[in-house]
Amino acid sequence: TQSTGSSGINAEYGRFTILQFVQLLQQHITSKVDDTRLNAVTLLVDVSLKSKLNDSEVTVLIKFLCGRLSEKYNIVPKILSGLTCFVKEREIEPSTACSIAKELFQSVDVQALHQDTRHNAYSLVYSLLHRNLLSLLEGMNNEFVVSYINLIDGEQDPRNLMLIFNMTVIVLQHFNLDNIEETMFDVISCYYPIDFTPPDDSEVKVSPEDLRTRLNNCFKANNKLAKHAIPFLLEKFSSSIMQTRILSCETLKLCITSYGIGCTEEHLILIWNDVKQEIFGGVNRELRERCLEVISTLFWVLTIPNVKNKSLDPSQFMKVVFDYCKEKLSYSEIKYIRPTSCILTSIVKSSGAGSGLVAEHCLDWLTDRFLEHSDINMKNVLLDEMVTLLGDMQCEPARATAAVIHFQWKKLEGMFLGVISDKESAELCSSGLCGVSELLNVYHMTEQHKKDEPR
Questions:
Q1: Given a cut of 80, is residue 214 above it in pLDDT?
Q2: Burial of 413 (0-12, 13-18, 19+ CB in 10 A)
């Protein structure tokens, strides 16, 4: 069988239209013998794919194949692969695209099929989404989402899940989720966290990291999921399994960044309460680092310029955080200094605005705490953390903080010079020298900032 210059099917004994060819195979396609029907459908699909068919003939063939999707499962794989090829290679009518999707959803119990046939079904939907997205949106929209959820629900094979997660991102980003976002979230969240380890001798070339990345993409794809995803992730954060807690922090950070403050604001205090407890009382270093990253992300979305949200006053949440840090440092216990400093550093590194907030609201208070302490060990630790904080404030994106620090110059300078002249502690003296060095760096940054300002 070969293509010819005109449309139709070129067979060994003459030319046929697609309708004539179907009629020629009719008795075999409707045979009661499964193998006969399979061979007839296979021949029809293979010959058609190699022939030059016009658009109307393609439509006729697709309509015929869709009508056979209720066939026995040994014939369905060939029909699915044929439909997928036509969708990938031909421009099909919008109504035809919708017909394919509807017939697949209604006629095929995908979860009852073998793994590779299920993959064929998902590939067909994936091709429709890529090639005919607008048609599906206009012709089905919410109906498509409901049917799609039923199609993928219960899938377990990692190879198929890779494709499903990619498709789900498209569905979440483009289709109307009104009244069904919770159902959609329930379907994807049942896979969280990914707990998959391929056997050493497995032919499945899928890694847990690949699956996690794609599942995370689903979580963050639509901010309408925020009211379900954030409480879900905070619940996972309380898991007794450490890896689950770490993964939940990573996903939470991605979701906060994607959802924005408008969809995250009602959960701010809940998030803060959970992560601060781990930072001050946890024992796992990696989890503590992930929690600090969450705080940094929160302050990044809080301080994004030109983001208007009438229902949220960011200063309220910031005050809660800073007041808690001040409360912890008011205790005369060294163990609270380092965690508090880490929180402030994470805010400094979030954005230039976050750095400026720490400089404005905390540096002066930290200086007072140092000056009022009499315990040398407390003063040593506190001063070291202040020097580190000043150093972090000179790195991008915190350079603009230099101007804020400049207003507190005299007080900071007096503290560091006083420490240098105090011979009670060599360690304090060394930290004081480092502090003076950091202040000089701030001075140079401030002068450079003045030169760079537009005149």
A1: yes
A2: middle
